[in-house]
């Protein structure tokens, strides 16, 4: 009698262990892929666009600036641009507001410009108004880093 009880007990332990293992494999085996929300995608695109425009400004890459801005915004940047030998410009995004096809990206910026051996530092807060699909820079409100150095 003891032999059959221990055999049954061993069988139950094996069955319980097997079912636990199967349950673990089934529940942990699937990776649920969450879709990125539209607002998140637009926010990421606005961050990337700001970075592309900043790098084009630093490198004086007018064709990249033109491709990533509206006609009026490109004209404003070109007309406001001041001469510099080199620059180091950084953006820190703070807030994104999405209203239909318009995105307002608020960034604080910090820059150092070198002009004829003279070093000029400045900082400010700008709002980049971006429009369309894909996004393009339409306006720079508040303290425009592309009008520097002054």
Tell me the radius of gyration.
29 Å
The proportion of residues forming helix, as a percent range, comes to: 40-55%
Q: H/E series, N to C?
A: HHHHEEEE
Low-confidence stretches: none
Gross morphology: elongated
**Oligomeric status:** single chain
What is the averaged pLDDT score? Answer: 86
Question: What is the number of strand segments?
Answer: 4
Largest sheet: 4 strands, antiparallel
Count of the domains: 1
Indicate the CATH class.
Answer: Alpha Beta
Beta-strand residue percentage: 25-35%
> Helix- and strand-based class?
alpha+beta
Remind me, CATH topology? Nuclear Transport Factor 2, Chain: A
Spatial strand sequence of the major β-sheet? 1-2-3-4
Known CATH architecture: Roll
Question: Would you give an account of this structure?
Answer:
- The protein has a single domain, classed as Nuclear Transport Factor 2, Chain: A (Roll).
- 44% of the residues lie in helices and 33% in strands.
- It is of the alpha+beta class.
- The mean pLDDT is 86.
- It has a four-stranded antiparallel β-sheet with strand order 1-2-3-4, with helices on one face.
- It is elongated and about 95 Å long.
- The protein is built from four helices and four strands.
- The protein starts with a helix and ends in an 8-residue tail after the last strand.
């Amino acid at each position: 009698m003891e032999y059959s009880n221990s055999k049954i007990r061993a069988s139950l332990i094996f069955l319980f262990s097997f079912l636990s293992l199967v349950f673990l494999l089934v529940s942990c085996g699937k990776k649920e892929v969450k879709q990125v929300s539209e607002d998140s995608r637009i926010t990421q695109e606005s961050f990337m666009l700001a970075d592309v425009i900043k790098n084009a400004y630093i490198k004086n890459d007018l064709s990249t600036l033109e491709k990533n801005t509206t006609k009026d915004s490109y004209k404003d940047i070109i007309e406001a641009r001041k001469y510099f030998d080199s620059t180091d410009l950084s953006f820190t995004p703070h807030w994104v507001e999405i209203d239909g096809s318009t995105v307002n990206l608020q960034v604080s910026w910090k820059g150092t410009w070198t002009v004829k051996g003279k070093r000029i530092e400045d900082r400010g807060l700008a709002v980049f108004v971006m429009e369309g699909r894909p996004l393009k820079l339409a306006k720079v409100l508040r303290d425009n880093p592309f009008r520097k150095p002054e």
